[in-house]
Design brief:
Largest sheet: 7 strands, mixed
Radius of gyration: 37 Å
Number of strands: 24
Shape: extended
Distance between the termini: 63 Å
Helix content: 40-55%
């Protein structure tokens, strides 16, 4: 196995070649003390010196005078041990601020107001905010802003291989199609993202409908460009209709090569339209090609998931940063204290806080170090690295001639930071440090700082108080709102309880943008359980099945459904949740079937559309399960969980959806029975036991027909009341903060539905009604 020569190999080769080589130079100047360099460089320099090269070491800075800065330099060099009192002559200043952004804005303003302030900029740690502040002040850019070529195109290298494995990881697929640069048509990628977010899987019925509709739309988009249309279809088939391999097994190397070859060609073709030699797509094409070539050299014909990830990581390395060019008359910039070697008139140390590791641990035991030294192998120890760091830290201070300014933020990039190690030395050395220490957030300190600079103006912003939630939104008469011709139960319920939401969402059309995120597990389990029970009840002669047959059918159907709509439950670590889910659905399915058979109910419809008139609106709804027994009807609402909540809804006569559906199913005389079926408990709950003998009866003593009629009557009156309010330009804003005041305004309204006392759940309009916290 031939390995690429490492640092030690290359260094040894150079040392061996020195005796036979004619050196092209006579002197070598080194900046750091020779004893602080790593043993490798010490050895190299010794060999060079032995063969006639003159080594010239660092020249220490000369210190003359006695101002504050020079006294500090003398102390740091060890020439005096006593502390000193700062004179406040401006040669040494410490300026502190709460946030790095505040400090950057202050200093940029300081440079603009003081034209003679042109220091060398020592930028320690993140400095992007400082460059931004300079640009905003109209000053020349420091040229430190950088653009990375590694984001986002190179993310494709890591995500592309996820299409090889079964089951597909919906999170990675969603990330793949969400990238701003990916090898799919943008509209297709967005639709796939929406579908996977709702049903994490592929090739479900909803998926097939979505793809069919999209391909049909291509005829309109490309009526005269069949090649473009075929190219889009080819890209879809390449990624989503390819051969897949078990995630626990290995994938064919030829399939992996095909993916990276495709990426390389696509990226290079896509980059042809751009003229920049640094197009990120060219970087992607180059790295994809390197992965392909590396795979072709491997002797293996199959690769495991881990092996493939290692191959990609071998090539996936940080792409070069493109530094923005310095603008004319920009201040000189260095990023390390020891990069300053030679007299510098003024120095500004930006971010004078801790950026280095606080300590080092040796990688070797003492016995190992002793053995290596016997073999004449000398390593740089932690104490040596610490000595080197101490020397490096001081250089910016020692070489500055006239003025040194430290900018010290308390928070950098939103995180608290620690003091720089040199700060402790300075606190010990300067007995009256507070006299030259200034906090820009304290007015008294800013006043003291005026002795040295013309300060930028400080504008104190007046805090804007948060709005107060009002009881009503009053709309001018000229902007009266109209009603809608058609409502669903969801929109109707919103109108009855939270009118402001109904106005914002259904009349004004204010809807949040879809966020491409995978459905939460609880919601996903409910959707999957609902689908399994629906498919089961559609099976012919399902009433004749035994308990074992039902359990087997659920087990087999669930496995297929997971791949299509619930791939999240197939991921590593989800097996306990998946097993628990299947067992719950099996128990619920048999419990439901047994109840239907024992009570003589026949299945009339699943996901049945219902329509009818409700006052002046046309109502549309969809019932989960409609049953028939002779002249009797029953409507079941299937819920994944929430048995306590459903009990309370029936007890408080808040099961409006079931009552409304019963009204729409048979609005004349024979009211349908209603019940909730809670899947994770396998239980039915209803008002009484008229429809199901074994059901949990919540209010068995109440007359059902009379209760239904009362609920419908209250819904009608509440609906008309709300519509009248809106027509008059009054929109109620109901929340926890306004509920009590609204009750006082309305008084007793026994003929209306009982209003909610809490905030609306999942409210997208909290900001619009000033409901914070």
């Amino acid at each position: 196995l031939q390995l690429t020569p490492g640092f030690a190999n290359r260094l040894e080769t150079i040392i061996e070649s020195i005796p036979q080589a004619q050196l092209p130079f006579q002197e070598l100047h080194y900046v750091e003390p020779l004893q602080l360099l790593s043993p490798a460089y010490q050895r190299l320099f010794q060999v060079l010196n032995h063969h006639g090269l003159k080594l010239i070491g660092p020249t220490p800075p000369s210190i003359k005078g006695g101002d504050d800065l020079q006294q500090l330099q003398t102390l740091l060099q060890g020439q005096k041990k006593d502390t000193f009192d700062a004179q406040g002559d401006g040669s040494l200043l410490f300026i502190k601020g709460k946030r790095d952004t505040d400090l950057a804005a202050f200093f940029a303003g300081l440079v603009r107001k003081n034209t003679n302030l042109k220091p060398t900029m020592l930028l320690s740690g993140p400095a992007q905010v400082l460059d931004n502040a300079f640009i905003q002040e109209g000053l020349p850019s420091l040229g430190i802003r950088a653009t990375s070529l590694s984001r986002p195109p190179l993310q494709l290298l890591k995500l592309a291989t996820c299409f090889l494995w079964s089951p597909l990881d919906p999170y990675k697929i969603l990330e793949f199609v969400s990238l701003p640069v990916q090898p799919l048509d943008n509209e297709l990628a967005f639709r796939i993202g929406q579908q996977i977010a709702q049903s994490p899987g592929i090739n479900s019925e909803g998926w097939k409908v979505m793809i069919a509709r999209y391909f049909a739309s291509l005829e309109e988009r490309f009526p005269k460009a069949p090649d473009d249309k075929e190219k889009i279809k080819m890209q879809y088939r390449f990624w989503f209709e390819r051969q897949q391999f078990d995630a626990k097994a290995s994938a064919l190397k030829s399939e992996v090569i095909q993916i990276f070859d495709f990426l390389s060609i696509w990226a290079r073709e896509s980059a042809k339209e751009g003229k920049s030699l640094y197009d990120p797509l060219l970087t992607l094409a180059d790295k994809a090609l390197k992965i392909k070539e590396l795979l072709e050299e491997l002797p293996e014909q199959e690769l495991s998931r881990l092996e493939l990830e290692r191959v990609v990581r071998t090539i996936y390395e940080p792409a070069p940063l493109l530094l923005n060019e310095k603008q004319l008359e920009a201040l000189p910039v260095v990023t390390q204290s020891d990069a300053i070697y030679g007299p510098t008139e003024k120095t500004l140390w930006w971010n004078f806080v801790q950026h280095e590791p606080a300590y080092f641990f040796s990688k070797w035991y003492q016995s190992e170090l002793a053995y290596l030294q016997q073999q004449k192998v000398y390593l740089q120890q932690p104490k040596d690295k610490n000595q080197q760091l101490i020397w490096q830290r001081k250089q910016a201070v020692l070489w500055t001639q006239n003025q040194l300014i430290f900018l010290i933020p308390s928070v950098v990039e939103g995180k608290e930071v620690q003091a720089h190690p040199l700060m402790g030395n300075m606190e010990a050395a300067i007995s009256n440090l507070p006299d030259i220490y200034f906090n820009i957030d304290i007015p008294e300190d800013r006043a003291r700082l005026q002795r040295y600079f013309h300060l930028p103006e400080s504008v104190q912003l007046t805090p804007r108080p948060l709005g107060v939630t009002q009881n009503f939104i009053n709309v001018p008469t000229s902007a009266q709102l109209a009603t809608r011709e058609t409502e669903t139960f969801t929109s109707l319920e919103t109108l009855l309880y939270y009118p402001y939401q109904w106005v914002f969402k259904y009349l004004l059309g204010l809807r949040k943008s879809p966020i491409l995120s995978i459905t939460p597990e609880s919601t996903l389990q409910g959707n999957l359980a609902h689908r399994l029970l629906e498919k089961l009840l559609l099976e012919p002669k399902v009433y004749e099945w035994s308990k074992m047959q039902v359990y087997q059918w659920i087990d087999q159907a669930a496995t297929k459904l997971f791949y299509q709509e619930g791939a999240v439950l197939l991921l590593y670590g989800k097996e306990p949740l998946r097993v628990s889910f299947v067992k719950k659905v099996q128990f619920a399915a048999w419990s439901l079937l047994d109840s239907l058979k024992s009570n003589g109910w026949e299945i009339f419809g699943l996901e049945k559309d219902l329509e009818g008139h409700f006052e002046k609106s046309q109502i549309k709804g969809r019932a989960d399960l409609i049953l028939r027994r002779g002249t009797e009807w029953a409507i079941l609402d299937l819920k994944w969980r929430g048995i306590s909540r459903r009990r309370a809804m029936i007890r408080n006569q808040e099961d409006l959806q079931l009552v409304l559906y019963a009204y729409l199913l048979n609005p004349t005389d024979n009211w349908a029975h209603t019940a909730y079926f809670i899947i994770d408990r396998g239980e039915l709950i209803a008002r009484n036991q008229e429809a199901f003998q074994e059901v949990e009866a919540i209010t068995p003593d109440l007359d059902t027909v009379q209760t239904y009629e009362q609920i419908i009557d209250k819904m009608r009156k509440t609906y008309n009341w709300r519509i009248d309010q809106i027509r008059e330009g009054v929109i109620e804003v109901r929340s926890e903060r306004t509920a009590a005041a609204l009750e006082e305004v309305y008084g007793d309204t026994l003929d209306l539905l009982e209003m909610k006392q809490k905030n609306a759940p999942f409210d997208d309009y909290r900001t619009l009604i000033n409901l914070f916290g």
